[in-house]
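I keep forgetting this: the sequence line spells out the residues, with the fold written below as integer tokens. I include a record here:
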Amino acid sequence: MGAEIARSFPAAAETFKRADDIVGYELSRFCFEGPAEQLNTTEISQPAIFVTSVAILEALRDNPATNSVRADVTAGLSLGEYTALYAAGVISFEDGLVLVQKRGQAMQAAADATKGAMVSIIGLDEETVRQLCVEASNGELLEPVNFNCPGQIVISGSKSACQRAEELAAKYGAIKAVRLDVAGAFHTEMMASAAETLRQALSNCEISQPSDVKIIANINADYYPSAEKIAEGLTKQLTCAIYWQKCMERLLADGVEKFYEIGPGRVLTGLMRRISRKTEVINVSSLQAIKDLS
């Protein structure tokens, strides 16, 4: 991911080069060439996604045909919140990447120690998903953690509880239950050790006060009022639920009319179609997408 953009825009290529120096290995090679089994590990995928997203953003900023695209507010889903903070100018690229690298390493370590999983439940409302979790938990940890869009809620907890939830989902009327290809039970207390590691890393990171560009927080669908609250939100994010649907609904209620999804993939574009079909979303995940904006 990002290879074509890096070849076409010096600013993007420089972003990948700086990233390699910061993380201490050829992250760009994993992004451009894989192999997928290594790229998809939590430890590598998190910095890879952050760097590719920033590279695309820098390509837009460096291109005279697209540098007028400026955000009034930024948002990011889970890991994407770091890109949102960078885009808003409150963290530097180096600090953001160091944080993301440590976050990925700490989450991988916590996942290895706790043996959790995540399952996407399709077609149920929040109350029904909570009922499903109560029955499937059987005394183990299992809770809804990602409220992505109407009819899509991700649950997280122990592997055995997630297995039971997959088997019971149809009983509750779910269209389907999909086990996610992730290392562990993210956004639950199983990530407590990772949250502590990240809290310590954040104490060594310079975060500016939000000013011209607002940033909306995953954990409560409200705007970050201060640098202190940003650090607190990023830490809580690892062990608390993510309210993406509410974030988008808040932005729509506050008058946001046009959204740009910047980074590899089209997940957020798809989610917004489920949240508000009439809202304009411009996906910028490829060289062709940048050309189309020019």
Notes: The CA atoms of residues 75 and 84 lie 5 Å apart. The first helix runs from residue 3 to 8. The longest strand covers residues 142-149.
